[in-house]
Write a structure and sequence with these properties.
With 483 residues, the protein is α/β, with parallel strands linked by helices. The protein has two domains: 38 residues, no CATH class; 383 residues, Alkaline Phosphatase, subunit A, CATH 3.40.720. The chain is built from 13 helices and 17 strands. A hairpin with a 2-residue loop joins strand 16 and strand 17. Helix 8 runs antiparallel to helix 9. The longest helix is centred in the C-terminal third of the chain and has 25 residues. The two termini are 30 Å apart.
């Protein structure tokens, strides 16, 4: 809905007479302005968005929390074999910042990947044996190998890439999309988050809800997290002895009380609360239907792999993501934890890759065969990369890697993305960027571009500043990967 019309509908009698001069003046001005084209009644996005015709209507972000090793997955460095256990040259490290986990090491010995790589597809992309399904679809992907960030520890790094700032308090990517573009389904949230199980390193970094929070935006734009046990959403089921009719009456009375609160105080967040209660009631029927996969064909279930029917797995989450996209959920983000291999990488990393390789591939194939990939953007990646030097004990068969923000790899596919692209070059150590750096703000600008948004024009006034997801410095979408 047009924000002006939404405001007029929400104005109470008391507020109208209290602000009559301003209200009548605004109404008169609005009557002289050119009529805006009508938008869907349940949209609630900004009236001037999208800024241009979008290539993607929705997006799925497969977030590998903990930072996958680019050296063992997507950034092949064969020259490192000859440098096994040799010290990383000072000319490569150049005194760059280290974490406290390795800054006290006497040496920084080079640890070549133990995993085999091979070229695939027309693009000739090099992909590790750990990701065979991903390798089979490289001609559907744009692989970016030169992403970089300033953050070197997990929490600020994940907060940074998800919200555009290392400190908490900013709006997340999905919240910006909900605020700017609105919702396409009145019975499901516009932004949904899942945090599936994992089989790699069990000690994983915590995920805080600020990663999908709305920050300074209205609370209705925050992500709704689906749980892996019990009700998919807390309090979705009626309490024992409470019927749906009784709950509807209760929510109606609660809405009346909130409306009186709004009339007395005028805080727009009260209206958001009313909207959220109403959405929660509608979700009582829409969410169980969403999560019931009994109607999926055997071929589809087999495509996602053996874990797809186990609630809370990555495979199950990918299938649910496709079902959400089918139902016009705007943005789905899946956080898969356990990628923080400081030691025992040779055991834990293959487990992690098995969790995600087939389901990620299946998601792309499923979307493609349904004709949905062309207007659905899919992103796969983490918050930073891993070091070429070893943390802890080094052998040919096992090693660990520390955090590395200087360069790391991701892939993108679908709406707005050019298929079969390998973009950016790192040095022989995958330590520094040799050509075509891509800052994480550039990545977010690219995501917004696919969805019809000029990142420089999507802002929100807060504490006297025009806040943007991509910050105030100059950043641009990566044109080489845009279709």
């Amino acid at each position: 809905m047009d924000p002006f019309q939404q405001h007029i509908q929400a104005v109470t009698r008391r507020h109208f007479f209290g602000r009559s001069a301003l209200g009548l003046g605004t109404a008169a001005l609005a009557s002289m302005l050119p009529k805006r084209p009508a938008v869907a009644a349940n949209s609630n996005g900004l009236p001037d968005l999208p800024h241009f015709a979008p290539k993607a209507k929705r997006a799925i972000y497969l977030f590998m929390a903990g930072a996958p090793s680019q050296l063992d997955t997507l950034d092949y460095k064969p020259k490192m074999d000859d440098l096994f256990d040799k010290d990383l040259p000072d000319s490569i490290r150049m005194g760059q910042r280290l974490t406290t986990m390795t800054s006290g090491q006497a040496r920084f010995p080079v640890a070549p990947s133990k995993f085999k790589f091979q070229q695939y597809g027309q693009s000739g992309a090099w992909v590790s044996e750990l990701l065979p399904r991903t390798a089979s679809m490289v001609d559907d992907l744009s692989i970016i190998r030169t992403l970089h960030t300033e953050a070197i520890n997990h929490d600020p790094a994940i907060t940074y890439i998800c919200t555009g700032h290392q400190l908490p308090g900013r709006a997340s990517l999905g919240s910006w999309l909900s605020y700017g573009l609105g919702t396409m389904n009145e019975n499901l949230p516009s932004f949904v988050v899942m945090t599936p199980s994992w089989t790699g390193r069990k000690e994983a970094q915590a995920l805080y809800n600020r990663l999908w929070g709305s920050g300074f935006l209205a609370s209705r734009h925050q992500g709704v997290s689906l749980r892996t046990d019990g009700d998919p959403v807390l309090y979705l089921s009626n309490p024992h002895g409470v019927s749906s009719e009784l709950r509807e009456r209760m929510l109606g009375r609660l809405s009346e009380l909130n409306q009186k609160t709004y009339e007395r105080i005028g805080d727009p967040e009260t209206l958001n609360r009313i909207d959220q209660y109403e959405m929660a009631f509608r979700m009582q029927s829409s969410v169980p239907e969403l999560t019931d996969i009994s109607g999926e064909t055997k071929d589809v279930l087999e495509m996602y792999g053996p874990d797809v029917e186990k609630p809370g797995t990555f495979a199950s989450s990918c299938l649910l993501a496709r079902r959400m996209i089918e139902r016009n959920v705007r943005f789905v983000q899946i956080f898969h934890r356990g990628w923080d291999q400081h030691a025992n990488l040779a055991v834990d990393l293959p487990d992690q890759c098995r969790d995600v390789d087939q389901p990620s591939w299946a998601l792309i194939q499923d979307l493609k065969q349904r004709g949905m990939l062309e207007d659905t953007l899919v992103i796969w990646g983490g918050e930073f990369g891993r070091t070429v030097y070893c943390q802890g004990k080094l052998t040919r068969e096992n090693y660990g890697r520390d955090h590395h923000p200087r360069c790391f790899s991701i892939w993108m596919a679908g709406g707005g993305i050019k298929p079969g692209v390998v973009y950016g070059t790192t040095d022989d150590f995958s330590y520094n960027i040799a050509e075509d750096p891509v800052h994480i703000h550039d990545l977010n600008a690219t995501i917004l571009q696919c969805l019809g948004i000029d990142h420089r024009r999507l802002s929100y006034k807060f504490q006297g500043l025009d806040m943007r997801l991509t910050g105030v410095e100059h950043h641009e979408p990566v044109q080489a990967v845009l279709a």
